[in-house]
Amino acid sequence: MRPENAHQAMLLRLLREGGRSRAELGDVVDLSRSKLNVELDRLIELGLAEPDGLAESRGGRRSGRVRLSRQTRFAGIDIGATSVDVAVTDGELGVLGHLSEPCDIREGPAAVLDRAVTLLGKLREQGLYTQLHGAGIGVPGPVSFPEGVPVVPPIMPGWDRYPVREAVSEELGCPAMVDNDVNIMALGELHAGLARQVGDFLLVKIGTGVGCGIVVDGKIYRGVSGSAGDIGHIRVDDDGPICACGNSGCLEAYFGGAALARQATAVARSGGSPYLAERLAAAGELTAEDVAAAAAQGDAAAIQIVRDGGRRVGQVLASLVSFFNPGLVIIAGGVARLGHVLLAEIRSVVYRRSLPLATGNLPIVLSELGDAAGIVGATRLISDHVYSAA
Known about the structure:
alpha/beta, 18% strand, five-stranded mixed sheet, 15 strands
């Protein structure tokens, strides 16, 4: 069920922020009182909204409150390189249940999407929903947004042009939308994170890959073909290591998850870090999480790896800040758990190298949503679609 016109769509999006009285809605929408009441009554008839008692008096008769239907349910599916997260939310995007498990993106679309659907089935068995009204999906690669398909994703073998949107929609019996995982996270921050009051911001995700969600005037900017924000493949050194994309010297080749693991292994084997050497001997391999743990312990070699990576991220970000002039920069993703050592290095480079006018009031912060950003953003994506005129 979708709203029938733009007025109803606007009212649903306002109610997504929480129930309001008819009088409060009248204060913020450009509709006559009678037209507003007609549209709200129609949304209640359609089952998209419901009455919610009476509001406090504002000096006259008490106005009736309206909220989104308590039956509305959205699914968020956040597929990473090494994990899959699913959640079910209500119409206001409050998370009712959230499950996560390790999952290798290289298993291919059929296997990975089946895992996601199975996890959602577990949430259904818990009684969280009987019917879904929409599903949003994030994947760790470039997406043709109008078609709902990944396009030549470097770390997703077998996914090129796979009909993710159609497959999930058919499996779950509801509308579905798919986007790049970084855009999904940016939508999560816009809805429930540090960017709620910011119309223009950048979200930099540093995980297995490096990407950037660009929000302009409260909307995701995807570019002509959907590849806007692919900053992990900006070259930072002509003579640098080979990247997963086939080029050399990309930012991602220096500071993605695989690059951090490679640098940590080299340091451990050269005797530069007893801590990392011990972890390597115990596990047989190192990960970005090991670098984070070592840095947190004060390990000098690990801290240097983090600083070097932060410096390169800062160099790229300084150019973006001078070009885009955002109101906020959020650092997110698994590698962002390297925390304040990373943040301090990025800040120092950006503030030193960008134009003073662009950085004078620019906060650069770590995400506070963590793993929830992707699933909340995925449900924000599909709710934007469901709460738009059919």
